[in-house]
Amino acid sequence: MAKRFYYGGQAVIEGVMMRGKKSMVTVVRRPNGELAIDVQPLPNIYTGWARRAPFLRGIIVLIEALVLGIKSLLYSANMSLEEEEGEISGGLVWALVGAAIALAVVLFFIAPLFLTKLFAPFITSAIVFNLIEGGLRLLIFIAYLALIGLVPELKRVFSYHGAEHKAVNAYEEGMPLEPEAVRVFNTAHVRCGTSFLLAVLVIAILVFSLVGLPALWLMVLSRIVLIPVIAALGYEFTYFGASHIRSRFARILIAPGLWLQKLTTREPDESQLEVALVALKKVVELDQPEEVSQASS
After folding, report:
1. Which of 9, 108, 199, 258 is deepest in the core (most CB within 10 A)?
2. What is the mean pLDDT of each run of 10 residues along the chain (297 residues)?
3. pTM here?
């Protein structure tokens, strides 16, 4: 029996991107009210064995989220402004991915380290140092989410984020993908990227504690080179929680991530819910020929 595939995606500007087994679908609401639909095949790196291999899959998922996310965002920006769609070059995508990674590393890893170094004369324990650094990292992350949530344009993106979660939650419960059946579902989801990032920031405290208190340049280097390791562990933690959702222990573990999603999701309106449902229906439809073929073989 084939292993169940879990659909998911992300919110974009006035739209939603959904990822399937072999393709991703981005649906955007144009200013005139019509829906623009973009279907893109997924490269083999996002569908092959590495995407399913424990620990390695966490790194692949991180790259996938950045690359596919930026592609979808660029497409949605064009469509929501009614501009002609242009070809997105690989160089531009990777430049934007590099900029996004650099900003995240500086804001959530390097800045907390230098802030904690201000207290270094009073700290002799690596564990205490990393607890303080980790606490600052979490505070910066939560403050960042709270602040961007005040931007009107991003409030709409967060509503589409909520619509995406409602649609996936309904699908996984076997409900019809219709607005009246989907709107009652929660805007939080156990496999959300927000929960994944929270897991990464908490696990970073444990990993960096093993580094100890070396010279500053080594500490800075460790905050960069260990990110793939932390991302891999963070993904496995999130995957475990989602796979054992009926376990009380797992529900306790994932509860902080679900709570944090209150900062990154909003209740969607009917038009936003429609966009998420169109995207999910389309990506499921594209996977159906493969499922029929497997069943008949």
Report:
1. 9
2. 79 95 95 94 89 90 88 88 60 79 92 94 89 96 94 93 97 94 95 94 94 93 94 94 90 94 96 97 86 35
3. 0.89
